[in-house]
Amino acid sequence: MAQNIIVQVGQCGSQIGCRFWDLALREHASLMSSTDPKKCIYDASLSAFFRNVDENKNTSLSYPSPIRTLKARAVLVDMEEGVLRSILASPLRDLFDGEQFIRDVSGAGNNWAVGNRFYGEKYRQILSDEIRRQAEQCDSLQSFMLIHSMGGGTGSGLGTFILSLLDEMYPKVCRIVTPIYPSKDDDVITSPYNSVLATRVLTEHADCVLPVDNDSLIDIVSRCDSSTKKNDNDRCPFDSMNTIVANLILNLTSSSRFDGPLNVDLSEIPMNLVPYPRMHYLISSQIPAPFKMTTNSSIPRNINQIFRDALSPHFQTLRVRPQIDGIYIACGMILRSKTIQMSDIRRNIDLLKLKHMKFVKWNEDGWKVGLCIVPPNGLPYSLLTLANHTCIKETFSELKERFTILYRRKAHVHHYTDHMELGDFEQARENLNQLIEEYKNIEQTNELLDTTENKNSSISTTNIPRLNVLS
């Protein structure tokens, strides 16, 4: 069993991380045969995210062994103390030791350059030491999973500094990032700068990126959470939004943590769904919405409906339109269910390909499927879809437009140039332009193949010799 290390950065990353550890504990607790922790066994699935520590001897115990004290495989980073302090005062505090918290007091001021160039260099050695300490406590390190925002200074700046540091220290270990992109009406005026500067680092140093935007999270919560009030004061129910992202990570890793007829190692996701190294942005959706208030009556029971819903924009964590714009490069599905069979999966994938999904000509069988027999805690099943689709270029185009509105006037640029060169803005914008063009080229190439194929089909049809039918 391989292990994963969670690196949660900034206020947003720390809040999602806090929700993740709570849900991970609940998920594993629901599978244990005893409610008495002293009678529970530390097994391979628990080792994916937790260490079992005998505090009397200050040693980590291998599995299987009786649970003593669970410690999270995590590094928690924030340049403001608020959220990390609240974690230390919460029931989760015993999951962490003091060395796992890397913090400052003044914050990054919503400035990517301060987070990346100033705090990154200031804390480089401390970050390196703690990352190395966590890695050395793993028997078989499978991945680093980063969670951070893209609009603020610590999340975007220091988060992407840590990503490049991981690439430097552990280039062969899979790096999966879940970045939270800001809303279009975000109250941080410099968020377009931060997002574009951070996207450049994600493109260069991540193996796989699962982008999430706040607007989509709000849409999902408003649509699916019956307890959400429809007024401005309750527009952002953060706990439910954090639950969606936390469950995304749990479902993503489920097939490598638990048994199933078709297990998927995390390294297989970029291997199968990322044919080009820069185009590693995957659009995710989850069925059903992972809220504790979801009732059995609201969960579709027809297997075909489950798969159709998986492609619905109502459940996507990014505001894009794959059914209307662009083309699929590859697609993955990870199911968690005791009742769904491989035959059900194959039949429904064939139906989706035939009626609802258009793939590039050179990768029409570009699927990766995982099936885990352990359903999510409190739900009969879940289906996580990961789509490498060219429609994501629209997200990048909108981001570039917001960046350009500010940068055309050089607004707020002087806050950044104390720590970086003006050329860094130009390089980040050029990276975004290139990324958009790469996705456009995929679409154009596929259109040419379609045209050529249609011409060849027409020629072959007209050249068929007519048979004279004798009466």
TrEMBL record:
PROSITE patterns (UniProt xref): TUBULIN
Matches recorded under InterPro entries: Epsilon_tubulin, Tub_FtsZ_C, Tubulin, Tubulin/FtsZ_2-layer-sand-dom, Tubulin/FtsZ_GTPase_sf, Tubulin_C, Tubulin_CS, Tubulin_FtsZ_GTPase
UniProt keywords, alphabetically: Coiled coil, GTP-binding, Microtubule, Nucleotide-binding
SUPFAM superfamilies noted in UniProt: Tubulin C-terminal domain-like, Tubulin nucleotide-binding domain-like
Record carries keyword GTP-binding: yes
Pfam families on file: Tubulin, Tubulin_C
GO biological process, one term: microtubule-based process
Domain Tubulin/FtsZ GTPase: 57-260
GO molecular-function terms, A-Z: GTP binding
Ranges in coiled-coil conformation: 422-455
GO CC, any one term: microtubule
Domain Tubulin/FtsZ 2-layer sandwich: 262-401
PANTHER family per UniProt: TUBULIN
Protein family according to the UniProt entry: Belongs to the tubulin family.
Designated name of the protein: Tubulin epsilon chain
